[in-house]
Structure formats: structure tokens, C-alpha cells
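Possible regression after last week's pipeline update?

I re-ran a chain I had predicted before the update to compare outputs. Posting the input and the new output here so someone can diff against the archived version. Not blocking, just want to make sure nothing changed silently.
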Amino acid sequence: MKRFLPMTLVLLGCFNPDFTQKPCTSNSACPVELGYSCVAGRCAHSGSNAVVDMALDPRPVRVEVEVRGTGSFYMGTSATDGINDTPTYIRSVPSPYFLDEREVTVADYQACVTAQVCTSPLSGPLGTQGWVCSYGTGKNNHPVTCVTKTQAEAFCTWMGRRLPTEMEWEYAALGKTGLSGQRLVFPGTLGGNACWNMNGTCPVGSYVKAYLGQVVTADQPGFYDLLGNVWEKTSSPFCTYPAETCTTDKFSIRGGSGFDSDMRWSKATARLPSPAAEYYPNAGFRCARNSKP
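New output (post-update):
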């Protein structure tokens, strides 16, 4: 048996898999136990001779919040004061996922354009209402608007993420509070708690922070502007409830905007159809990604 030991050691020494081309968004995607870490979107090995791009990662820092829950929740409503959100029906709570704390800003999207991954959206006045697309206006901390679904998806993919589903969006906004009849993203009245009826966008994070239908403090996990500022794109087709799949070229947008005053659109269950190629000064997006069960 001893005469085979040296050969075994030689063979083991030769087996050295190279993970330096594996894409990653964090160290958890790399075999850290083998000395790898995530550098500039690729797994890199300390002390290796592999060529690693050490340029600064051009992607903006985006805070994301993990959403977890168990059981079921009511999606939609049986009330008639919303829009396109009836009837209510029971859905299983989504699998754990991450959702951006804030809507994607002009500065965030500009970084993607500079990296030559995203295309520039329309900028300046659009339409007859006097509304203005936010890109290129110097409002870097405002939500980016006038982006198509394709442009939003390109940004989220660049960030290692995706657009949220309609169910993920509504659960993050209301959680299980829909059981008690709550319809706003937070309990109480709209008041000055959201960027609403402003005839324009607001800097992100200017109003209350909420998580699953409850107001939280700034230091707690939660989301800004799920109600107001801009309508947010989802990846879900716009189907009539309770259907979850249908043949359509329209996708659901959620959350209302700072341009709106119609209280029907202030409900977290309210939804509008939007063709994939459509863009407006009152619509933007935030990204999501899967989490481990």
C-alpha cells in the first residue's frame, strides 16, 4: 500500500480547479474556503498568478432589504376604492427575496450609462402636462424616469439583480396587513408621509420608511417610496385577477407617483398596465433578487 502513496499525493497536488472566471456579486458566490473572494465581479484567488481586473467596480452601492415570511396573504382587495385590484384572493408568501431600499436614482442609472451597459433614457419635457423626465436635469438623487422595461431590466441585470414580481412588490408593501383591511403602505392617512401630489418627483428617501405595512425608523430594515415618487415597474404580466398568467404585451406597475392626486392610486393594491416599450416622467423602478430559503 505504501508504494502507491507518493503517486496519490502527486495526483492530489495536480488537482487545482481555477475559479477565477466565475462571476460573482459577493464573496458568498466564491469558494472562500479555497482562498477566493469576489473582486470586480469575478472570483479572485489571493496569491494566485491569475490575471484579475483590479479596476474599481463601476456599479453604484445599493442598499437592499431581505423580505421573509411564512404562510399566505391576501393579494388585491374586495373594496372598490382602488383601481384594477379586485377581487382579493389568497397567495402563498413569496420565497425569501431582496428588494432595493430605494428607487433607482438618476445617479445610479448614469453609472450604468457611463459603463456603456445601459442606454440613455429620454430627458427633458415630455407630453402636454409640463412633466419633465428626470435624467439629465441635475436631479441626481431623484428617481430615474422615462425608462422602458428593457432599460430597467438592463440596469438590474448589471447589478446582478432583476425586476421584482408584482406579488413581491405588494407583499413588501403590505405584508399580511391586508387581512385587516389596510390599503396604504403604512397605517393612518396619506398626509405628508409620501411624495404625492407634487407635480414632480422628490429626492429618494425624503418621506417615511415602511416594512410590510408598518412604519419603521431610518435605522431599521424597510423601504422608501413604495407609495409615491414614481410608479415602479414589475416583471409580471398585467392579468385580470385572480389569473397570474395571461397573454398580453402589458406589465404591471405599482405604487403611484408624485404627479398623482387621484386617491384611488394611493392604495398599495392599485395597479396599472404598461407596455414594455412605454416610458413616462412619472414611472421608474427598483430591483430585486432571490435569497436563500
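Follow-up from reviewer: compared with the archived run. The helical segments are 5-14, 106-114, 149-158, 166-174. Marking as no regression found.
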